[in-house]
TrEMBL record:
Transmembrane segments: none annotated. This is ATP-grasp domain-containing protein. Residues 109-302 form the ATP-grasp domain. Keywords: ATP-binding, Ligase, Nucleotide-binding. InterPro entries: ATP-dep_AA_Ligase, ATP-grasp, ATP_grasp_subdomain_1, LAL_C2.
């Protein structure tokens, strides 16, 4: 019997539990919340914070079946992953710098500057007078972010220097460390990059074109692959990634990055996580390229060789479903029609009728997502529009369509 410890049970991790079972692994879900979606799919549940690796190790002491640790869809558990992989002497320990660059956005910005990668101005620190002074030197609009959050939590748009203090007060509430980064806002094509690293080289990567909500929340609504990147930009991306892996001493495992292809045709890396991405990205990649990134990540975690045999890409999209306000979810309408649509590969729903749902202001507040695939990008976009039109959520006796990108 081989068991994977999965740090976190949020909606973005559900596919990992399902795929692990299909591959013959048992799973232990570690999460402080018994109601976390992943708990229903795990073989065992340990009710502890993913920020407490010593307690996790103590609770699981004496187990000889644990072969790997995963931390999908969130950076919060990466310090525990780094500690546990060393404590249990597992095959793929997470290097300290890779962990710190994942959980502290200012560390990654400093790394990019050190490697002389395309950059933009940013300042970081505690939300005090000194940070206000340094942030005033930036070009506005700017974004204020907690250095240690993900999923768009605490990201605040800042139109000018005069609203810095109020933006700080709103954003720092989402930072366990009480530290912020203020960065110039990049305009251009928003991208997500999913990577599998082997022996310090990029063994596979996929780039999605990402649609986000307008200010003030900047939450993802769609991912489209393959992104229309010029070949020279994609080649440069691979070189950048391999330089980063060398500096991080990161030989094997997954990476997820946010990036922007600027209007100046330069590629800017924004954030990095030494983990798989959420929002259905693994399902998206498998539907588009035929690469099972979840199975590949599990293989590297347990010290085995991953199978990576990409095919010619087929246009594929993840469409995220969210509500535009909070309320009780009285009814989900049109779900059967959506599941039956010929372009729909998979549908995942994370909200049930009768439960309270929040406005889609953070990634964790999504109601679900669909994966769609079509022969052409135009056909794919038309299918996504049909799905958005068919699926409706009735909140507190008011029918509303799923917001579009």
């Amino acid at each position: 019997m081989t068991t994977l410890v999965v740090l976190g049970g949020a909606d973005g991790s559900v596919g990992v539990y399902q795929r692990a079972r299909e591959l013959g692994y048992r799973t232990i879900c570690v999460d402080i919340r018994p109601s976390a979606p992943g708990v229903l799919y795990a073989d065992e549940f340990v009710q502890l914070s993913v920020r407490a690796p010593e307690l996790i190790a103590s609770t699981l002491a004496g187990r000889d079946d644990i072969v790997g640790v995963l931390c999908p869809a969130s950076d919060v558990g990466l310090p525990a992953l780094a500690w546990l992989t060393r404590h249990w002497n597992l095959p793929a320990p997470l290097p300290d710098l890779a962990m710190r660059a994942s959980v502290d956005k200012s560390v990654f910005r400093e790394l990019c500057a050190e490697l002389d990668l395309p950059g933009y101005r940013a300042v970081s620190g505690a939300p005090d007078d000194d940070l206000v002074k340094r942030a005033r030197e930036l070009r506005f609009p700017a974004l204020v972010k907690p250095v240690d959050s993900s999923g768009s939590r605490g990201v605040v748009a800042c139109s000018g220097p005069g609203v810095l203090r109020s933006a700080f007060a709103e954003s720092v509430a989402f930072s366990p460390e009480g530290k912020l980064v203020v960065e110039e806002y990049l305009t251009g094509m928003h991208l997500t990059v999913e990577v599998l690293v082997r022996h310090g080289r990029v063994a596979f990567h996929a780039v999605t074109e990402r649609t986000i909500t307008p200010p003030p929340y900047f939450v993802t609504t769609t991912h489209l692959v393959p992104a229309e990147l010029p070949s020279e930009v994609d080649d440069e991306l691979v070189r950048m990634l391999e330089r980063i892996c060398e500096r991080l001493d990161y030989p094997d495992g997954p990476l997820t990055l946010d990036a922007v292809l600027g209007r100046d045709a330069r590629l800017y890396l924004v954030e990095l996580g030494a983990r798989m991405g959420g929002n259905g990205l693994a399902e998206l990649i498998e539907s588009c390229y035929g690469v099972d990134i979840m199975a590949a990540t599990m293989a590297t975690a347990v010290g085995e060789e991953p199978v990576l045999a990409p095919r010619e890409p087929v246009p594929t999209m993840v469409q995220v479903f969210g509500a535009d306000r909070a309320g009780r979810l009285a009814e989900i309408c049109g779900l059967g029609e959506v599941r039956a649509h010929p372009s729909v590969v998979d549908v995942q729903m994370f909200a049930e009728e009768g439960t309270f749902v929040r406005a889609y202001e953070q990634a964790g507040y999504k109601l679900g997502y669909a994966v769609l695939r079509a022969a052409t990008t135009d056909e794919l976009r038309a299918s996504a529009e049909a799905v958005r039109g068919a699926l409706k959520f009735r909140l507190d006796d008011v029918a509303q369509a799923v917001p579009g990108p």
